[in-house]
């Protein structure tokens, strides 16, 4: 799978992570479960003969519901956001297995959303980046529009100043539930796209999703800035692509007989996030001396 | 307009840190009343405002606004009736959003925040006109983020946001206390103007006794979670700071005496 294709496929997830972490200030780990949920739903739907595009919509809805569960656990039951999201994530592992009926499903020989393009004579190597790039750009435009609606402004204010927005008559619980839902809907679409381009859904494909998503957001912010909402959304999407390119590069490096394997990625990504989170502080300390 | 009966509020109920912040408040506020609220630290002034706005749930008692029992309403729902300005200038506005976006949110107070565009083109004219009365040149900075403004500018903007849609009740909690004296005076004058223009029913907490006597048509004094003085009209107009202090020490003195009697 090409880095560009992966970057755009994960772009949905990264946009979702931007919504929860940055806009809502809600660290949401549910995505580790909702990304494979999307893959599972899409794979099962396609196997059952549904249109591959329709399966994306099913994935979106399923992911949305998963996010709603986390949001409700947090706002209505008063469970700390991190813990609420971990609970949903763990529960989703069982749910995903139930949906698939087994740990993985292959889509060999089944039609996917890439079929119309390959049928039109576009090579598989180009079709996926093209289609995923287009779809993730549409998601970006949708979020850009959403964040400038009255609801979107309320969403931004909920993350920054809940007291202020409550005094303006907004039910912040509702905003949190809907936003976490949307974020996980996007993560599930990522899962569905990945499953269709890899040709398989796997119950373990979600491990490390949140850390990779966060790393992509941070890479994007660092390189492209986040002065306006539009800029920040674009940075998130480009961050996703750059992150996947970096990973591909790291995997291709060889130092003598040592080279990195895909199983090292979680460690590398975690280190990258730690570095990105601490470097600004360290720099501040060094300069203040 | 507002009718509060037997309002009781305790913090940390049942623990050794239990605080009886309001011990059975009775208060009737008439439409158009501008009430200044004074009292020592910890007397319960902020707690009363927070109970009215719904920030704190109450233990017992009733809060009626326009004959409607609102004491079980969540805070966001009461926002359709009540506007607030806090002591902290950062609390009333959203820093990363622009001036016009903040005003747009305030312009929809109590209405659904749906999927229509946040800032409508037609809103801008209104916003400019409203901002112009602040005399802070903000009317040409609609797109600047509020985080760029000074504390005084933010507090003036918060006041404007609180009155953009006329509230049934305006709650001000030491809203000039965090500002330098000159800015505080400007914000106070703006407060007076906005209240007079719209004939707003207002409760204003202040630590400045002179201010409390100068402004409004009624004054209430809190002590130990109770209202110990309630004067209005000509009676209030005739009062001096010394009279207020005298009243205050009289009540406190009686308490000292009763404490002593208990100890003996
Ligand atoms: N959130 C809270 N949790 C616990 N105790 C509180 C809380 N808020 C207020 N209190 C207590 O309730 C009592 C009344 O406090 P309140 O803030 O209403 O006083 P105040 O009259 O506004 O005083 P000040 O003039 O200092 O602002 C105090 O003893 C205070 O410690
Ligand atoms: Mg107070």
UniProtKB/TrEMBL annotation, chain A:
The chain crosses the membrane at residues 7-24, 53-73, 80-99, 130-154, 175-194, 206-226, 233-253, 265-282. It is a multi-pass membrane protein. It comes from Desulfuromusa kysingii. InterPro entries: ABC_transp_permease. This is Putative ABC transport system permease protein. Keywords: Cell membrane, Membrane, Transmembrane, Transmembrane helix. GO terms for molecular function: transmembrane transporter activity. Coiled coil: none annotated. Pfam families: BPD_transp_2 (PF02653). It is found in: Cell membrane. Its main location: membrane. One of its GO terms (cellular component) is plasma membrane.
Automatic annotation (TrEMBL), chain B:
Coiled coil: none annotated. It is found in: Cell membrane. GO terms for cellular component: plasma membrane. The keyword ATP-binding applies. GO terms for molecular function: ATP binding; ATP hydrolysis activity. The keyword Nucleotide-binding applies. It comes from the Bacteria. Residues 2-249 form the ABC transporter domain. It is a peripheral membrane protein. Keywords: ATP-binding, Cell membrane, Membrane, Nucleotide-binding, Transport. PANTHER family: NITRATE ABC TRANSPORTER ATP-BINDING PROTEIN (PTHR42788:SF7), TAURINE IMPORT ATP-BINDING PROTEIN-RELATED (PTHR42788). This is Putative ABC transport system ATP-binding protein. It comes from Desulfuromusa kysingii.
